[in-house]
Design brief:
Elements (H helix, E strand, L loop, with lengths): L7 H12 L8 H10 L3 E5 L7 H6 L4 E5 L2 H16 L10 E5 L12 E6 L10 H14 E11 L9 E11 L3 E12 L4 E12 L2 E12 L3 H10 L2 E7 L14 E7 L1
Parallel strand pairs: 1-2, 1-4, 2-3, 4-5
Antiparallel strand pairs: 5-11, 6-7, 7-8, 8-9, 10-11
Length: about 260
C-alpha cells in the first residue's frame, strides 16, 4: 500500500505553482486568524514550503513547522530568509522554526503548544489507521489543555470519479518556462484511498522535461474523524464548510474541524 508521504519530495518543485492557481491564498487568512487568537506557541503539521507558516510568522506569532520532506523544507527556509531580508518592522526577528520530522511522533514536551494546525488535508496522507491514531495521540500530548487543534479535509474523496490523462492546469513559471499538469485519478475503494497520478511537463524553448509521481489521500468523513478526535482526548468545538466560518454540510467545498484538548 502506498505511503502517504510518497511523492511529496517530487511535488515540492511544483507545490507553490499549483496552489497559486487552485487553493491560492483563500485558506491562509483563516489559519492566520487562528494563530492570532492562540495562547502560546503554534505548531503546523506538514508545513511544506511555508505557504501558511511564513504569513503567520510575519504576523509576529511564534510558530514551528514540521515536515518529512527535505525539498519542501528547503523551499520554506528560502522563503523565511527572503522574508527576514525584507525591510519592515520586525522582519529580521521572525520567530519561526523548521524541523524535519515525523508527525506521528512529535519531539516536544507535553503542553508545549497552544495551537496545532493541520492544513491541506495533511491528516488524510496518513494512509493507515494506526498512523492516524499515533498522530492524534502525539498532538494531544504536545498541545496544552484547552489548546486548539485545527484541521481541514479534502471533501468526499470517493466522489472523485476515476479519470486518466486530464490536463488540469497550464501556465508559465518564470519568464521562459511553461508548465502543464496532466492528472489521473484512481480509487482503491477497499482501502479507501484516492491516488492522484501527477505528470508535470516543463517546456523551455525546445527542451521538454517530464516529472511523474503519485500523491495518495485516505477517505475520512467528518463523523469518522470526529470520533477519532474524541477518543484521543479532544472535544470537537466546530465544523465549518468554508474558510469564512460558514456552516458545514457534505456538499461543502472544504471541511474544517476545530477541536479543543480536554
Amino acid at each position: 500500500m502506498a505511503e502517504g508521504w510518497h511523492g511529496w519530495d517530487e511535488y515540492a518543485a511544483f507545490y507553490d505553482w499549483e496552489n497559486a492557481r487552485t487553493v491560492g491564498r483563500r485558506d491562509v487568512a483563516f489559519w492566520r486568524g487562528l494563530a492570532a487568537r492562540a495562547r502560546g506557541r503554534v505548531l503546523e503539521l506538514g508545513c511544506g514550503t511555508g505557504r501558511v507558516l511564513v504569513p503567520v510568522a510575519r504576523d509576529g506569532r511564534r510558530i514551528v513547522g514540521i515536515d518529512r520532506s527535505a525539498p519542501m523544507l528547503d523551499r520554506a527556509r528560502a522563503k523565511l530568509a527572503r522574508a527576514r531580508a525584507r525591510p519592515g518592522a520586525g522582519a529580521p526577528d521572525l520567530r519561526a522554526t523548521l524541523l524535519r520530522g515525523d508527525i506521528r511522533d512529535l519531539p516536544w514536551r507535553a503542553g508545549t503548544f497552544g495551537l496545532v494546525m493541520a492544513p491541506y488535508g495533511i491528516l488524510q496522507s496518513l494512509t493507515r489507521e494506526r498512523d492516524l491514531r499515533d498522530t492524534l495521540a502525539s498532538v494531544a500530548r504536545v498541545l496544552a489543555r484547552g489548546g486548539l487543534f485545527g484541521m481541514d479535509l479534502v471533501p468526499d474523496l470517493p466522489r472523485w470519479n476515476e479519470y486518466r490523462g486530464r490536463t488540469s492546469l497550464q501556465g508559465r513559471r518564470g519568464a521562459t518556462t511553461t508548465v502543464t499538469l496532466v492528472e489521473s485519478v484512481r480509487q482503491d475503494r477497499r482501502r479507501k484511498l484516492t491516488i492522484f497520478d501527477q505528470e508535470y511537463i516543463e517546456r523551455r524553448g525546445r527542451s521538454r522535461r517530464v516529472h511523474r509521481f503519485a500523491l495518495t489521500f485516505r477517505t475520512l468523513s467528518v463523523p469518522q474523524l470526529s470520533r477519532r478526535l474524541e477518543a484521543a482526548g479532544f472535544a470537537v468545538q466546530a465544523v465549518l464548510g468554508d474558510y469564512q466560518g460558514g456552516p458545514w454540510d457534505e456538499r461543502a467545498d472544504v471541511w474544517v474541524i476545530l477541536a479543543r484538548r480536554k
